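MODEL INPUT / OUTPUT PAIR
PAIR INDEX: 1
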Amino acid sequence: MKEEQIIQAARELFTVYGYKRVSMDEIAKKANVTKRTVYSYFKSKEDLLKYFIDEEIRTMKKIVEETENHELSYFKNVHNVIYRLLEYKGESKFLKSIIKESEIFENRIIIENLKQIDLEIQKYIKQRLQEAIDKIRDKYGNDKIIFADMKSEKKENVNARKTNKKSYWRK
């Protein structure tokens, strides 16, 4: 009960005022608990932020599960999932507030915690890509994968020359 009060108070305060401006005293006051009670559940304000980032990651994983359709292609699934996750990031008042604060103040603690969300999204994409590669290997063997890799590499180099820019993958 008290833990939930603390979580709700911190979420509201972080969303309205930002992470940096909110103190543990203010969280305790808003939650109608003592500062000691807040510290009995969360060692620091950063622990509270980590809790919210983990909560956002759990929500995003749920969105992935609800959005994925295994009857669709790899590309369509990844597109749909990324689109839905970006849509969610735009709808989440907490995330919008924290992201904005990280951009304005370049707060290392916030930036490091937000990176966890990006890492989870990257992990999802890598996992889905590996599943697609494995599926092709099972169906056609390794030769098709090598050929597809060379073909995309050649296309990438041609596109990079057309734009007179270095290829992202070839630094």
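PAIR INDEX: 2
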Amino acid sequence: MSAAWVLLLPLGALTARHRWAANGKRFRQPDRSGTGCCTNEAWFYTHVLLQLTGLGLFIAGFVLALLKLDIEDDGGPAGAHKVMGYVVAGMAGLQLLAAFIRPAPSTPRRPLWNVLHHNLGRATVLLSWATVFLGVYLGHEQYDQPLVVWLGPLVGVLGTLVGLDVVLTLVRGPVLGAAAVHAETQGKALRYSFGSSPGRLGSPVLGLKDGPGGGGGGGGGGEQLGAQAWGGAEKGRAQ
């Protein structure tokens, strides 16, 4: 269960939270009809794979604990660990259920679903961390398990994931801003290169079209490229 709640499930959550870093990459492009198998953005399938794998490990560990460990509900740390484990299992089940009743991106209920899904996931992961560390303490007290052997890897993995989240959060704004500026610069270069000669506007090679005022086609290209730079990172919100 430690591998599930300390590594796989938090990593899956980070994949969704920082989907902008994938820049809209896909494992497979949609066909001409705009549909096809496995055509969502790559972060989505990575997120699903990590979550399902982690959930499978958690279920296996949960069942094993019920069958093999005799945990008395004495109101102490052991009882608290037992109750926390049941609560985590229930919250994880709700998250899985929510994945199957996800509204379409265009429906009015989708923003509410996003808020509930995101915050329930965060709460579940935080509670699971407390449950895991309490379980490590109980393993040391009741089964003479060495603390360092368990706490060292757990703290190291958690520290790495938290540090990665902090770094990505801090660089997100500057990176996306630089991408937009770069795209706008490219758009201006296209405008000056192909907008200076009226006869070359609307070139079928670049797909530029005349905008308002005749020379607006080049400006439109710059705006479109700028939108693509931001859209590639933000489009994942619709999934």
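PAIR 2 NOTE: The chain has two domains: 2-151, 152-230.
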